[in-house]
Every structure is written in structure tokens, then in C-alpha cells.
Write a structure and sequence with these properties.
single chain; mainly alpha; Photosynthetic Reaction Center, subunit C, domain 2; extended
Length: 177
């Protein structure tokens, strides 16, 4: 009996470890992420090869239809796009037609522009003015998306006004009314 209990614990530990490492969910998620990263890398390599010598030129002189990233270099735009793809867990094909990069047929193209404008306003107008935080405080796509096409929330929902807790933060102007 004294040897049976440690052997039982050892057996349970080994089987738990094996079943944890063989989880099909974790492997399939890792495969999907690797595939998307590899897909983005494939397109980035193609674009970088086709744009050799133009890396430092302004992107709006190299690419058609640049609107929100004007003034950035070609190399910066490719890096930013790759970061966005990572932040949303998508490949280039999510927003672009890979045979016609300037096409705006994808609704995600316009949506991305709007999100860039929203993110810039959030960082410049709201977060920069928050005095209670160590500055600079910034957010990016990954802050909400966390490698998902759609953030996990549905946005703000209308709610009735909640009463403020006693002794809570005061409203601007010094009153708590």
C-alpha cells in the first residue's frame, strides 16, 4: 500500500502532462497563428523585393491610395501593416486584394482607416490628457483586438445611470453632484 499511493500519483501526473501537451485546441490555434504569420511574411518578402531601393521614399509616392499613413516611409508602412495584421490575427488578404493592393473593395480597408483615426484621437486627445497616469500612455490595435478580428466586446451598451459610490472621485469643478 505504501508504494501504491506514490505510483498512483506518478501515473496521474504523467497522464495529465501527456493529455495537456496533446491538446488539439492549443495545437490548432498555434498552427493558425503560424500560418497567418507565414502568409504575412510571404507577402512582405514579395513586396520588399519588388520595392528594393524605394524603402526610404515616402509611402504616398510609392503606393497608390495611401491616406492615413502619409509621410511615413515605404519600409515603415510595411512594418505598420504587418503589426496591424499581428494585432488582429489576420493576413494581408483580410484588407487587401493581393493582386491589386490599392483596391478598396474590401470593407475592412475603410474600417481600418476609421480605426486608425479613432486610435490617433484616443491617444492624442484623451489618453495624453489623463494626468493620473504616467505619460506617455498609448493604445494600439492589439489593446482591444488582442490578435482577434473582432474585439471580444460588442462596444458600449446603453445603461441607466449608476449612482456614484460615497467618497468617490469628484466631478470636474469640485462638486460631486
Amino acid at each position: 500500500m505504501k508504494i501504491f499511493v506514490p505510483i498512483l500519483f506518478l501515473f496521474i501526473g504523467i497522464t495529465s502532462f501527456i493529455s495537456y501537451n496533446n491538446s488539439p485546441y492549443e495545437k490548432s490555434e498555434a498552427i493558425i497563428k503560424d500560418t497567418l504569420m507565414n502568409d504575412r511574411e510571404k507577402y512582405l518578402t514579395f513586396l520588399k523585393d519588388s520595392l528594393k531601393g524605394k524603402e526610404t521614399l515616402p509611402a504616398d509616392s510609392v503606393f497608390k491610395n495611401i491616406q492615413t499613413l502619409k509621410g511615413k516611409s515605404t519600409e515603415q508602412v510595411l512594418s505598420i501593416m504587418n503589426n496591424w495584421g499581428h494585432a488582429l490575427g489576420v493576413s494581408c488578404k483580410f484588407c487587401h486584394e493581393v493582386n491589386n493592393w490599392a483596391s478598396e473593395k474590401s470593407r475592412n480597408h475603410l474600417r481600418t482607416r476609421e480605426m486608425v483615426i479613432m486610435n490617433d484621437a484616443l491617444n492624442k486627445d484623451l489618453l495624453a490628457n489623463m494626468k493620473g497616469f504616467r505619460q506617455p500612455i498609448t493604445m494600439g490595435c492589439i489593446s482591444c483586438h488582442n490578435e482577434m478580428k473582432e474585439p471580444t466586446h460588442d462596444g458600449p451598451r446603453p445603461q441607466r445611470a449608476r449612482p456614484r459610490p460615497e467618497g468617490g472621485a469628484q466631478k470636474p469643478g469640485g462638486s460631486n453632484n
